[in-house]
Amino acid sequence: MKHTYIFCALLSVLIMPGCKSDMDFLTEKPATFYTIDNAFSSSAQIDQELVSIYSQLRDLWANPSEEGWIFVFRGNGTDMFDVPSIRRGNTFNNYGNINPDNGTFNNFYSTWYQLIGKANLALWSAELSNITWASPADKAYAVAQARFFRAFAYRNLGEIFGGVPIVTEPVSTPQFNFKRSTRVETYQFAIDELLAIENDLPVTTDKGGRLVRGAAQHNLCELYLALGTQLAADGRAADANAAFTKSIEFGNKVIDGGTYSLMKTRFGSRATEAQGNVYWDLFQERNVNYQDGNKECIWALQIDYAAYRAEDGKSKLPYSRTYSPVFRDGAKDHLTGTAEDVGGRGISQIMPTMYTRDEIYAGVWADDMRNSDIVFRRIFNGNVPSSPYFGQPVPWSVMYNGSADATTNMNNRSLCYPVSCKIATDKYTGLADGENMSNLFRDDYFIRLSETILLRAEAKQRSGDKNGAAADVNLLRERAQCGYMVTAADMDDKFNLILDERARELVYEECRWNTLLRMGGTIAVERIRKYAYWPEAAATLSFNYNLWPIPQTVIDTNKDEPLAQNEGWNR
Domain limits of the chain? Predict the structure, then answer.
């Protein structure tokens, strides 16, 4: 079509000589494809730009394309997750291979700036004179979503990389002189963005997935906590305490504001089934969204099976495939197959460390709904007819230590582990259509009230209120019907209790790198050395860091303005 148009235009010029100057003739005036100058002519097109950001974030969380760097984003290489023996080459714990040239760092960095670029474009286009809005509120909500996304990106960049360049306008020409802000300035920019649009976001929406006010308030709770932590590290104690007070204030808005509450009784699509409990209900199909009656959900990514079948092959959670164990390799004499009884068609791209699967539930911590078999399944009946455990539970001692060879046992332990209800189900959607128990087709959480509670608990502890911190943690432990309630004495200064409770409550939900690096000091490296599954971490992590390195390619291409590398990475 485009070639036909150009040919006809040229022909008309040739048969009418002298009508236009050579310069007019040679000046390209495209009318059949979009440029930055003509791409936006309606508010609906701006909304589509926002939808593209929602889509990018969905793919970042769910990782339907199984990109290795996104498994790091979701926790590979932290205290909580490592790789099994069959993925040893994908480890993110061998610091002989981890340096500023590592592609994972660049993928993180560039992805958040891609999102910032989309948000900046949406904000720029929203002010075009030719755009007609249904109402001022309609425009305000579009602008609020774009500014939220921009703040969200900078919050992530600040937690992971520290101070980064603040870009607030679309960039249409190459630029080589970006200037780093400080980490405090990065956090403050994100805070200012969210404060500006907090009241332009609706309290609730009719449909799941769109941003609401609670999402901004949750992020303000986290940002003020992060800001206070950095200010304290900079020796600014009074400013730090003021930031912690603001963190608690925004946590209060979410937790005590009347919109959200912890789910404490059975609810949703499978509430009448005897086998479940309320924590299990949180992760069943048609139960995730606030609109489904789940008052704990603040913001969720949207998955639609009909869309997956019709046109959107990425509308899925490939969690059973990417996160579930591989018993058929690690315990092949007793367990095999890819059905519900072994957690689906798992290939284990990353696996929970021994800390995540066992240590956080040792001793007094064992009595916990989140450690129940329906939530974190530990009972697997042998399904190999020749096994002495056929039809009976296979002991973990057999799966973990069934060989006379220590290396084989370590490999097997990496392949065999409990299965969370967050990554597998006993009722897979789509089997009649040819689905093979690789994917879940439920929505998933970006933000759940439990994390807001844990952020507020940390802010209280950092402000000196250990009793208040313990009380917040116990809100979750009471819901989980735990046998042990924590006290102020449990709230240690290394934040181990907070981090352990986050692991119990938010496994497969939180982005652990953000949490560990946000806490500063040597918390991240100490926990990685202690809890990493394979010995490479302890052997090669010979330096301290509390930020990831600025990607070397970013430093090299920003040739007109030196970008300082983060401490620990100039090696």
Answer: 1-33, 44-264+511-571, 322-433, 452-458+465-509
